[in-house]
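Dear Dr. K.,

Following up on our conversation at the group meeting, I've run the structure prediction for DUF177 domain-containing protein from Metallumcola ferriviriculae. I'm pasting the input sequence below exactly as I used it, so you can double-check it against your construct before we proceed with anything downstream. Let me know if the numbering doesn't match what you have in your notebook.
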Amino acid sequence: MKLEIKELLKFPGSEEVFEFNENWDYLETGQGIVKFASSVSFSGKVTNIGNSVLAKGDVTTRVTLKCNRCLKLFEHDVAVDYLEEFCTPDEEENEDCIAYDGEVIDFRPSVAENLILVLPMKWLCNVECHGICSQCGQDLNEIRCDCREEKVDPRMQALQKFFEEKE
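The predicted structure tokens came back this morning:
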């Protein structure tokens, strides 16, 4: 996802349209590995705004995630409204500006960051997902188990034993 901007830099106000379609294997996130089920499509335009270059476009793909409740894999569509400002390392005082070297902008790191930011906080295959039984491991979406769902605070287990002895 590299774009040569040599001609664009010559004329402030000039624009260039671009389109990328790349196959990515995976992204590492704080929640785990995200695998791609389809290619990453990125289209938009770059504009020379004087001391920097403004990139605006759309990123779309489909990723495979692991449900946080039942641990099954599921696919999730991702769409990003991309808007980033790029500048030379000399102009990098602006914190919102991403530095580029020479006459080429590499979009891949910023596209990856934007994709990670739009992923859901909690990866769920379905909002109604019941997860798995904490005692027997049965997928509660498929069938209910007969395990007791009695949750006891570990600090109170001694008190629970006291009442069981009295009965």
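Two things stood out to me. The chain has two helices and nine strands. The chain has two domains: 2-118, 130-167.

Best regards,
J.T.
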